[in-house]
Here is the input.
Amino acid sequence: MTDGVPSCADAAVLVTALLPMRQRNALRVLLNKSNISPKEVAALDVRLIERAPGIGRKGIELIDNWLRSHGYQLSGPPCQQINRLQFQQRKQRRIEEAIELLRVCGYEVQKTGVQRTGT
Here is the structure.
């Protein structure tokens, strides 16, 4: 900062300071830069951001709010709902494959409910 006027680097630090550290670091890794701007983040597809380590549903919401406060918004449709359904289907398929493997190996697999008894 010179004579009370912030430099471009100081302004970038101030802008990203409003974003929580976890999301800031994830976006820095995605962009491979130490200083990021809302414009650069808005250019990223939301699906790419969702796949970044440390970014979950709340992280996407924080990034979206941060972008909106600077006049930008996330681009592309969010895919978390689709991913959640695919995850459940893949999980069910893996369970079914594991049960089939146990049966092939001679084990008897029974479907039971969890019952808890009082002590």
In short: The chain has a mean pLDDT of 79.
